[in-house]
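Whiteboard transcription, Tuesday session. T.W. wrote the structure tokens on the left side:
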């Protein structure tokens, strides 16, 4: 599951700037994200009435039900420094019965997001992973040694067409699929060497157009480095 969180412009800036590290959703009814968001899932941040601006990973989730104004006040005292809400925000949430608090980790700018049907007055969407514009593939040692890339998420429709890849550092490659989910282009051997990619590392593809993807190698922490 992936998620879209609609935030005011001010809060978008605070998340991207690192000041706002906890996202809070307080409500009178137990609607999304209550009961649906889980640690490890990806959240796309969208400015209210504007574009997508970022992406984050949910580090932890804490949910509350049966809230009273007194309990909401207690949650404010506990979480306010990380939530960055103002007096108007908390006063407007004092009658909430449900709440979800989420730790935001690995925050990064992201100008694209999933496609979804917009609904008036809705500020959170839980969506299937298949609609995510960001897909990551963990590379096996054999793929790195032999310089190839397979896309296990590629549908039969995707495999039947050519795709365009925007490569890190510049350059564009257009390729099709050789067999199964393996891309025919052999450019990846060079890219793996240039970026010091090892087995277990990740290649990320971000969909920026119809059958067009930006390729990158987000580094994961390695033990002992």
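and on the right, the sequence the group agreed on:
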């Amino acid at each position: 599951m992936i998620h879209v969180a609609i935030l005011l412009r001010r809060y978008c800036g605070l998340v991207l700037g690192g000041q706002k590290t906890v996202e809070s959703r307080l409500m009178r009814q137990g609607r999304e994200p209550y009961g649906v968001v889980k640690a490890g899932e990806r959240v796309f941040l969208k400015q209210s009435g504007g574009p997508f601006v970022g992406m984050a990973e949910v580090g932890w989730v804490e949910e509350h039900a049966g809230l009273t104004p007194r309990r909401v006040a207690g949650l404010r005292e506990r979480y306010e420094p990380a939530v960055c809400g103002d007096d108007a925000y908390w006063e407007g949430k004092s009658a909430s019965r449900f709440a979800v608090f989420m730790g935001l980790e690995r925050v990064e700018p992201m100008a694209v997001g999933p496609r979804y049907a917009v609904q008036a007055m809705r500020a959170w969407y839980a969506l299937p992973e298949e609609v995510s514009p960001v897909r990551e593939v963990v590379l096996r040692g054999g793929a790195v040694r032999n310089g190839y890339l397979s896309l296990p998420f590629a549908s039969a429709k995707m495999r039947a067409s050519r795709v365009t890849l925007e490569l890190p550092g510049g350059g564009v490659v257009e390729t099709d699929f050789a067999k199964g989910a393996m891309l025919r282009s052999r450019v990846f051997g060079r890219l793996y060497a240039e970026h010091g990619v090892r087995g277990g590392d990740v290649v990320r593809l971000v969909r920026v157009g119809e059958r067009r993807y930006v390729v990158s190698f987000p580094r994961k922490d390695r033990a002992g480095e």
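Someone added at the bottom: Residues 69-83 form the longest helix (15 residues).
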